[in-house]
Amino acid sequence: MQVIIIEDEPTAVKKLEDILHEISPGIDILVTLPSAREAIAWISQNQAPDVGFFDIQLADDLSFQIFEQCEVNFPVIFTTAYDNYLLKAFEYHSIHYLLKPLQKEKVKQALRKVKDLKTILLDQSVREFLSGRKSGENYTNRFLVRKGTDFIPLESKDIAYFFTDHGLSFAHTFSGDTFMIDQSLSDLEAGLDRRSFFRANRQYLIQFNAILKFKSIEQSKIKLELTSDQKKEIIIGKQTAVSFRQWISGN
What we know:
The protein is an alpha/beta fold. The protein folds into 2 domains: 2-130, Rossmann fold (3-Layer(aba) Sandwich); 140-248, CATH 2.40.50.1020. It has helices spanning 10-23, 36-45, 64-69, 86-89, 104-121, 126-131, 185-191, 238-248; strands at 2-6, 28-33, 51-55, 76-80, 94-99, 142-147, 150-155, 159-165, 168-173, 178-181, 197-199, 204-207, 211-216, 222-226, 233-236. A 5-stranded parallel β-sheet has the order 2-1-3-4-5. Strand 11 and strand 12 form a beta hairpin. It starts with a strand and ends with a helix.
């Protein structure tokens, strides 16, 4: 397993290296980087590792800035002395969140999750799965979602709708489960098969098979009723109503 460490405290780097080598003597630590700036440069110029350990509070910035400046297409395990950033961490490709001082068993559990992802994907790489696309197709048909620290693979056919709440994105399945997903609705919309999914409004992206019925309401708006959640009312605005009628008719 190839690993990178982004950490500005030498003692913390040494401790993590020792733990990793205890867990797996053959583990390959490619590089240790003390700043967000150096991490951005390295990630931009090198092949992705199997996993990265990112300290959140670096000398020059929070490590979240790395995700804003370059493409991080590998799983990340965040490390920090505080739990203030727990929710924020899971907006990114975080597979685990470790509190300092690091414990061998906790690190082992985090690495096991990386290996579990590879098992789920069989012969496909973690990076290909995280991108959400299959080779040979021009739309996304599967996603890696999570509930808490658990990651779950989902196919688009099982998702009734995507929605956003307080800046976070979620996938709601036909079976009634809701999972967090690390993509904005706009990014999801751009990758999905538009014959199957429609952007109802700023908050909802709906699958065709999730629509039980709809009706016109005041000001030429449309109200949807869903098969998976009949109590939920989703309103399509006047400006989008014509496009919706064309889409639902297959035009």
